[in-house]
Amino acid sequence: MRYLIFGDVHGNLPALEKLLKKEEGNFDQLISHGDVVNYGPWSNECVELLNDIPNTIRLKGNHEDAFLSGNYPGSNEVVKAFFEHCYRKFKKTNFIAEYQQMYDIKKFRVQHTISNEYIFPDTDISKMNIKRNYVIGHSHYQFDRIFENNRLINTGSIGQNRKFINLAEYIIVDEEKDILILKNFIYDVSLVINEMIAENFPKICIDYYKTKPQL
Q: pLDDT band for position 129 (50/70/90)?
């Protein structure tokens, strides 16, 4: 089995569509590890697209949880502004309510994150009680780490890379060949920014995308 594993799409339809076109015919199963929604202008469309692809595993992230509860629990003013704008327009609650919490493949457990933590390439994970191999996301930083003989992979983010906003990251896991490949591509983030402007996103949201470094 060959898996295309990704997450943190965050309403970025152009990046998601480019991923699917780029990897067309190169996988047996899709696994989305959460946060399909919020931030970008196309939460509904991204949820619909993933729902229409057969044999796709769809997992919950913290932003699905927020949309399902109708409340963003954090204090970050930028995220609150995104949530208030995007949640009002979201119509696919019944779809994301069916998302799973985790999914196990041969060597890895795939889930949004571990213990609700943002795990970065340099995060001290010595106290996190990691006892198996994981594929996660959440922090929007791609990495491949070994800790006490366990492997911890972060796929990065398809829709909102924290280092370079126009870089989309994901992985391929090929069980037959026993390989895992970290992959990425560049997409046109101006498509997202222009749509945000057209949809009258708050200025704080538009400025967030405009000020991020690009490749």
A: confident
pLDDT in tens, 102-128: 999 999 999 999 999 999 999 999 888
Write out the DSSP string of 148-199: TTEEEEEE--SS--SS-TTEEEEEEEETTTTEEEEEEEE--THHHHHHHHHT
Q: Is the pLDDT of residue 12 over 90?
A: yes
Confirm whether 42 is domain-assigned. Answer: yes
Domain extent for 59: 2-210
Residue 62 lies in a domain: yes
Residue 190 is part of a domain; what is its CATH number? 3.60.21.10
Summarize the confidence of residues 35-56 as an average pLDDT.
97
83 phi/psi in degrees, rounded to 5 = -60, -50
Mean pLDDT computed over 66-90: 96
SS3 144: strand
Q: Give the global pTM.
A: 0.97
- Going by C-alpha positions, the residue among 213, 193, 214 that lies closest to residue 205 is 193
Q: Number of folded domains in the chain?
A: 1
Do the beta carbons of residue 13 and residue 40 sit within 8 Å?
yes
Give the Å distances, CA to CA, from 156 to 10, 88, 90, 100, 206. 12, 27, 24, 20, 22
